[in-house]
Structure formats: structure tokens, C-alpha cells
Amino acid sequence: MQQERKTPPPDAGEAGLFEFCENRSGGGDQKCRASSMKERGRKLRNEATEAEKALWIRLRGRQLLGYKFRRQQVLGRYIVDFVCLEKRLVVEVDGSQHFVQQRYDEARTRWLEAQGYRVIRFLNNEVLGGDIEAVIDAIVHQLED
Fold first, then answer.
1. Are 127 and 93 in contact (CB under 8 A)?
2. Is residue 36 part of a domain?
3. Is the dihedral of CA 39, 41, 46, 47 positive or negative?
4. Do 25 and 73 sit in the same domain of this protein?
5. Residue 19 structural domain
6. Same domain for 112 and 73
């Protein structure tokens, strides 16, 4: 019997990632979960916000001190906006939903920090508001530490 994937509703955010395959017997959960997470990351890359696109232009191609960043990367059970694996630095760009899901974001940050990552967050208007250089400077500062 083939496994079916459930897709989260469009407004489910990352909480919707925890709807896994219906057939949970035989230990297939992990494989299905990983596959679903990779697909969700791919979808998020294709549907990036304007702020994420603007920041990615500045992060990609080892432009910051030669460090490689990945976008919409799966880390454990989460997908982060940007990560430099070498420096264990996560960069998040938050929209207005951040204020609604603040407790979720705090728990997510605690988990990432427990895994040895540093997490820095910026609001969309910080990235798009004309002073992206201040955002880049803050990221560079974290990379230099």
C-alpha cells in the first residue's frame, strides 16, 4: 500500500509540517517526514517573500566573508529562512505573523540554540525599509564572532 501525504492548509505555517503520512506502520514516519520537509523547503524557496528575496541576493554566492548560506533549510523538525552551517548561524526574516506566533518562534529558537545555533531575527521592514546595510552589518558581526 502506497503512503499518502497530507498537505497542510496554506495558512498552517510550519505547524502544518507535522501532519505526516497516513500510513504510520513499519517505521515509515521518518522517511515520509524528511521527504515532506524537503518538499516544503523547496516550496518555500519558490514562494519567498520580498524581504527574503532581497536578503538572499546579499547572502548567496559566499558574498559575506566567504561564508556559504543556505535558504529554507531543514534543521531537525524546523525549516529556517537562512543558515550558515559552518558558523552555525540562523538568520530569520519575520513578517507580521511573528507577533501572532511569538511563543512558537521562541520555542523554535530555544531548540535551535540547544543544537548549537545562534539565531538572529529581522523584521521584513528592516530588510525592505531602505537600510539593508544595517542588516548585513549585523550578520557580518555575528559571522566575525
1. yes
2. yes
3. positive
4. no
5. 13-46
6. yes
Average pLDDT over residues 48-63: 94
- Record the cell numbers describing residue 134, joined without a space: 544595517
Lowest-pLDDT choice from 9-23, 40-54, 66-80? 9-23
| Residue spans of alpha helices (H) in the chain | 29-46, 50-59, 97-100, 102-114, 124-128, 132-144
Same domain, residue pair 65 and 34: no
Q: Is residue 131 part of a domain?
A: yes
20 shares its domain with 55 = no
| CA distances for 120 relative to 1, 2, 19, 89, 124, angstroms | 44, 41, 28, 8, 13
What single-letter DSSP state applies at residue 120?
Answer: E
Which residues in 27-63 are b (16+ Cβ under 10 Å) and which e? eeeeebbeebbeebbeebeeebbebbebbbebbeeee
